[in-house]
Amino acid sequence: MNKTKMKISILSMSLLTMSFLVITNAFGAMTKSFPDVPVAKIQMIGTVPSLGTLIATVVVGTLAVKYSKKLLSLIGLGIATLGGLLPLLVHSSIDVLIGCAFILGFGLGFVNTLIPMLISIFFEGEERNAMMGKNTAMNSLGSILMMLGGGLLGAKNWVNSYWVFLLGILVFLLVLFALPNDKVDRSEKNASGNIFGILKHLNGYVWLIGLVTLLMGILYTIYPTNLSIIIGQKELGSTSITGIINAVGTAGGFIAGFSLKYLNKVFKDKIIAGGYITLGVTFLLGRIANNLILIGIGGVLSGFAMSMIMSTIPFYMSVLSHKYELAVSMMLFQFMNSIGGFISPVLLNLLHIKVGESSFTFGCVSCFVIGIICILTNLGKKVLSNSVKEG
């Protein structure tokens, strides 16, 4: 088994996980091509993929306990690539483009759920943890490359932005030829016949980490969705400045992902708490800063926080799960993350928290409280002490 080829094939899939954002660069040009279509409907091209991903997460969790993860990865990559490239042929209707965006999101739901499963199957211990970090780093790199590539390709005609999804074909071939085929043994099939039965018997700490994931999905979503409003309220710049700050945050996530080994040495079993507190500092800087330098520093810290938490959570879930439970645990991780991002703005609205500075204040206080609770309860230490020892 060539581990280098295996790592390359798995991490290549990570490049695509945020690819649904590519077409958001073209929304301005699309409003001119479809002047009679409400802007809100055009924006659905950027939000509908999340619905597809959410549905796919449950589908994958059901299938992955019975079928090869490599096979399911190839199916997901094929679906995502189809959804990404189809608009090159059919792009005269917003409804069609929304449908393609849903297909793209459904395929990405396969990929996003299967990556931590594959890492958990093929890697153990510290190597597994390091791969989780590299996964988040490649997510960030992929976001930068896909957004930049889509922007350059679509400079003259927004439709050409979709050519960037040709990358999906390359990733498909890498997985096909470089990723070894995992086998679901007979005992695993028997044990996993009922997905709801597995959910019922998961380690209680898996559900607790699932709650931590849900909270992260809710709180982190506050940052990018309110950043431009904060910058506008402080009269520090335009939309382009927001894009730069977001890019800086993405770069921070890339650096943190590849530095996870060293971050673990610093924070040890307090890394999730450290991530929440780091995100709290991000909100604090955004709330009190009156210059772009501090907000930029907050952007870097947001990337570090995301990487620290979203690399550690699937690792914790993997060590808490038996082999036959991995697929369901990773499904739970992706589902909680997706639903958290989906309900975040709805929750803040129900709590009558205004956008902008008020949302940042809520995010800051919430993150500090959760971080302190994680420290006081020794969450990380308890998770590691309850890890599963396979015979």
Automatic annotation (TrEMBL):
Family: Belongs to the major facilitator superfamily.
Keyword Cell membrane carried by entry: yes
Organism of origin: Lactobacillus melliventris
Compartments, record wording: Cell membrane
Domain of life: Bacteria
Residue ranges of domain Major facilitator superfamily (MFS) profile in the record: 5-389
InterPro entries attached to this UniProt entry: MFS, MFS_dom, MFS_trans_sf
PANTHER family recorded: BLL2771 PROTEIN
Main location: membrane
Annotated Pfam families: MFS_1
Annotated TM spans: 44-64, 71-90, 96-123, 135-155, 161-181, 202-223, 243-264, 295-316, 328-348, 360-379
Descriptive protein name: MFS transporter
Membrane topology value: Multi-pass membrane protein
Keywords of the record: Cell membrane, Membrane, Signal, Transmembrane, Transmembrane helix, Transport
Endpoints of the signal sequence: 1-28
